[in-house]
């Protein structure tokens, strides 16, 4: 495979080729996602929810993100691996943000970092970029700020918030980010942002007018039957399939159907 780079993603945008991105948090899943041809693998702090069972993304630590990211990196031959900076690892000041990003790059082998926010974290993003570390922005619904917003509902429906989002996206392009995620905002606004900047806009719940799409892999595989936002397309119902298979195994052990004569030494 030819490796995907931040440059190839920017080229895809200028060629009108849409970018596919999915999360992965472990070696086995990352191998499947990479082999299937997904362009970008995000080691998201959604690991806090789907891997660790926390209600929010806030509890996951930098060490835990590095563990997930290093597992993913060992599996990947083609995709660009982007790693979320977790809550608390970059908000205090630019030096902390750089230190955390350096740890991710050195200890996991990831190719880029992602941070949530706009002008509030501009200096931190610049500091990281100056060190040669590619940065992906993340605007709109930013789950690390859930206690400020109070809900996971659609963002930037009002003029004022929409204006700030456009300014933030243009600022992220200007300082040198290679892409930006827009989460759960009106499709019309997301398209307007994508049309106004030359770096790729990757949407989740942001409609089809952007340059690429991202989903949480456990959600799109249907492993998680409790989370059903409108933007989620389920490609499998693995929750049902796996529950059936595992239930069958448990029953076969009880009934002594498993193992049979051919399944032993
Ligand atoms: O952590 C995550 O999975 C994300 C995506 C939803 C963009 O940030
Ligand atoms: Na995230």
Taking all Cα atoms into account, the compactness measure Rg is 20 Å
**Portion in strands:** 5-15%
With strands numbered from the N-terminus, the spatial order across the biggest sheet is: 1-2-3-4-5-6-7-8
Q: What bound compounds does this protein have?
A: 3-methyl-2-oxobutanoic acid, sodium ion
Explain the overall architecture.
This protein is of the alpha/beta class and 265 residues long. The protein has two domains: 6-234, TIM Barrel; 237-265, no CATH class. It is 42% helix and 14% strand. It is built from eleven helices and eight strands. Strands 1-2-3-4-5-6-7-8 form an eight-stranded parallel β-barrel, surrounded by seven helices. Helix 5 links the parallel strand 3 (80-84) and strand 4 (112-114). The longest helix is centred in the middle third of the chain and has 17 residues, at 159-175. The N and C termini lie far apart (41 Å). The model has no long low-confidence stretch (mean pLDDT 98). Sodium ion is lined by residues 44-46, 84.
Tell me briefly what this model is.
This protein has 11 helices and 8 strands.
Question: SSE layout and pairings?
Answer:
Blueprint: H1 6-15, E1 19-23, H2 27-35, E2 40-43, H3 47-50, H4 62-73, E3 80-84, H5 94-108, E4 112-114, H6 122-130, E5 135-140, H7 146-149, H8 159-175, E6 179-183, H9 187-196, E7 201-204, E8 212-215, H10 217-220, H11 238-254
Parallel strand pairs: 1-2, 1-8, 2-3, 3-4, 4-5, 5-6, 6-7, 7-8
Helix pairs in contact: 2-4, 4-5, 5-6, 8-9
The protein binds 3-methyl-2-oxobutanoic acid and sodium ion.
Sodium ion (NA) binds next to loops.
């Amino acid at each position: 495979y030819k490796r995907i780079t931040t440059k190839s993603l920017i080229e895809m945008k200028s060629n009108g080729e849409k970018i596919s991105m999915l999360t992965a948090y472990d070696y086995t899943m990352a191998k499947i996602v990479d082999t299937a041809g997904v362009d970008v693998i995000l080691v998201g702090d959604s690991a806090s929810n789907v891997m660790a069972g926390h209600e929010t993304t806030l509890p996951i630590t930098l060490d835990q993100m590095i563990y997930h990211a290093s597992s993913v990196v060992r599996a990947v031959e083609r995709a660009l691996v982007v790693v979320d900076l977790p809550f608390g690892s970059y908000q205090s000041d630019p030096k902390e943000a750089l230190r955390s990003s350096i740890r991710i790059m050195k200890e996991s082998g990831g190719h880029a970092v992602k941070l949530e926010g706009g002008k509030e974290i501009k200096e931190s993003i610049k500091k990281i970029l100056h060190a040669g570390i590619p940065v992906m922005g993340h605007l709109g619904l930013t789950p690390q700020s859930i206690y400020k917003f109070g809900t996971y509902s659609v963002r930037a429906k009002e003029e004022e918030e929409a204006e700030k989002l456009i300014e933030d996206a243009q600022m992220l392009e200007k300082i040198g980010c290679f892409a930006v995620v827009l989460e759960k905002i009106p499709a019309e606004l997301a398209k307007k942002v994508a049309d106004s900047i030359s770096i790729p806009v990757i949407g989740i719940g942001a409609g089809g007018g952007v340059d690429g799409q991202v989903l949480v892999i456990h959600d799109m595989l249907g492993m998680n039957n409790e989370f059903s936002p409108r933007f989620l397309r389920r490609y499998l119902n693995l929750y049902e399939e796996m529950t059936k298979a595992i239930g069958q195994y448990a029953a076969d052990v009880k009934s002594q159907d498993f193992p049979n004569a051919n399944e032993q030494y």
